[in-house]
Design a protein that fits this description.
The chain is α/β, with parallel strands linked by helices. Helix content is 38%, strand content 21%. The protein contains 13 helices and 13 strands. The strands form 3 sheets. The chain has a 6-stranded mixed beta sheet with strand order 3-2-1-4-7-13. A 5-stranded mixed beta sheet has the order 10-9-8-11-12, sandwiched between helices. α6 packs antiparallel against α10, α8 packs across α10 and α10 crosses α11. The longest helix is centred in the first third of the chain and has 26 residues.
Length: 362
């Protein structure tokens, strides 16, 4: 029996998800801890997603701040469970993505794993994406292999993670897992409500539900080339961001802010179901994890667009939706230490199976 810690801070930049798992033949969640992202660090990380003055130094300073917060969260989690550093085999740290451009051969996550190992006294496995990209892959999404291990199914099932961006894992009995990024998850919804109302997210999709879908805007958004291509594919803030949205808005004669929010929710839901329907027909079960699982309006829309399937949070299947992705990186740390491939070529497009991650001993 081995204990691992997983650390995830995603593209939503809302905070740090830290989990403790037990890995035997299966992965079991033991404990979890959440730390909100300080607003100054969030703004710095957002700024690093595009070029700017002195960005190398700013990134180096930001990742030190990031790591010290993560180390505090890990110490809190260990204390909660009366554990010491020596009880943990490794930390799987995704780091914070600031650039993702696999077409140009790179994906950058900051998170200074050497400092994290020093502060915690626990070995750290990090840098999971680079080896897959070196093998010709997208480096993302990396969670489908974990979904395959976590949710054995006799149904035609899909696991949908809705964070800043949405990605699908397609699970069919007797078939190898496949998957890809679908497009925006919460990233545009969060950006628009923050711009218009100063709120970090649209709780339960209430503001979106108060508006009406703007058909012309939706058609313009869906015309982006990303939605016309099949996987393997991945995306990030380099493509889908507030500037991308405002370029479309300038072409409209008028619009109501709430209608834009409703249209962005429809964009998320429509792009997910269109991608799912094209890649896996007659899906019987759609399991949703990530922050989007708490958006009631979005969940209802997914169900209405997929009437012949059951749409459910992973909570109903024994795995809390908030912690699935952090669990995945704890599991990937286990795979790295055991020499088990963590990618799936059918998902990322890599030339073959690869062991992912770099090890920073305690």
């Amino acid at each position: 029996m081995h204990l691992y810690i997983g650390v995830m801070s995603g593209t939503s930049l809302d905070g740090f998800d830290i989990v403790l798992i037990e890995q035997n033949s299966q992965c079991r969640l033991i404990g979890s801890h959440y730390l909100p992202m300080p607003s100054d660090l969030r703004q710095t990380l957002l700024a690093l997603c595009s070029s700017g003055a002195d960005e190398l130094a700013r990134a180096a300073i930001a990742e030190q701040h990031w790591v010290r917060l993560v180390a505090q969260g890990i110490q809190h989690l260990l204390a909660q469970h009366n554990l010491l550093a020596r009880d943990i085999r490794a930390i799987g740290s995704h780091g914070q993505t600031i650039r993702h451009e696999p077409a140009r051969g790179f994906s950058i996550q900051i998170g200074n794993p050497a400092l994290l190992a020093e502060l915690t006294g626990i070995s750290v496995v990090s840098d999971f994406r680079r080896r897959d990209i070196a093998a010709g892959g997208q480096g993302a999404p990396l969670v489908p292999a974990f979904h395959e291990a976590l949710f054995p199914t006799e149904q035609r099932c899909a696991v949908l993670n809705i964070g800043g961006f949405s990605n699908l894992s397609l699970l069919e009995p007797g078939q190898s897992v496949s998957g890809f990024d679908c497009g925006p998850g919460n990233v545009l919804l969060d950006a628009w409500i923050e711009l218009q109302r100063g709120e970090r997210f649209d709780r339960d999709g209430a503001w979106a539900a108060s508006g009406h879908v703007h058909a012309e805007l939706l058609q313009a958004l869906l015309s982006d080339e990303f939605f016309q291509t099949l996987g393997p594919k991945s995306t990030g803030r380099e493509l889908f961001n507030l500037n991308w949205l405002t370029q479309q808005l300038t072409r409209l004669p008028s619009y109501e802010p709430a209608d834009v929010q409703a249209t962005l929710l429809e964009l998320t839901a429509h792009s997910i179901i269109a991608a799912l329907s094209a890649a896996q027909q007659q899906t019987e079960l759609l399991l949703v994890c990530g922050g989007g699982a708490h958006n009631g309006a979005l969940m209802r829309r997914l169900q209405s667009l997929l009437p012949h399937a059951q749409v459910s949070s992973t909570d109903a299947y024994g795995v809390p939706a908030d912690w699935v992705e952090a669990m995945a990186f704890a599991w990937l740390a286990h795979c790295c230490l055991e020499g088990i491939a963590g990618n799936r070529p059918s998902v990322t497009g890599a030339r073959g199976l690869r062991v992912l991650g770099a090890i920073y001993p305690a």
